[in-house]
Request: fold
Amino acid sequence: MKRREEIKLKVNGIEYIVEIEPWRTLVEVLRETLGLTGTKKSCNEGECGACTVLMNGKPVASCLVLAIDAQGKDITTIEGLSEGEKLHPIQEAFLKYGAIQCGFCTPGMVISAKALLDRNPKPTVLEARKAISGNLCRCTGYQHIVDAIIGASKMMEKKE
Reply:
């Protein structure tokens, strides 16, 4: 018999009460229980960055976090960045600078970029590279992604 527990998660500003097995990871609950499939599940080892979400404003590999341990924390996924049809400036910059090809790594890259820009609105190229160093991209290389982060920084500065 499977043991299930009721937990409360706050994801993208919405509180959810879900009943889960205590060994399920946050990425599994986000995708399979809450239907938030923007966060990708890939390596299950914290190596690729595709599952990156913000937890209390810091980027984490959601494949390494038990969902039960995410209780009481503010979780932000890629779905939480846009406002309806309006993309977040980071998402706009990824499109503008050609930082998307297959798109699999994009949600994790965008979330990592958001964490950087939240704490450092004017990063250097080196800081942008470091911020995405835990995210793998097999299609674009990284220059377009770094350009998008720097471009997003400038776009966000103009909106202030």
Q: What stands out?
A: Residues 5-80 form a domain with the Ubiquitin-like (UB roll) fold (CATH 3.10.20.30). The chain has five helices and five strands. The beta strands are 5-11, 14-20, 52-55, 58-61, 74-76. The CA atoms of residues 116 and 127 lie 8 Å apart.
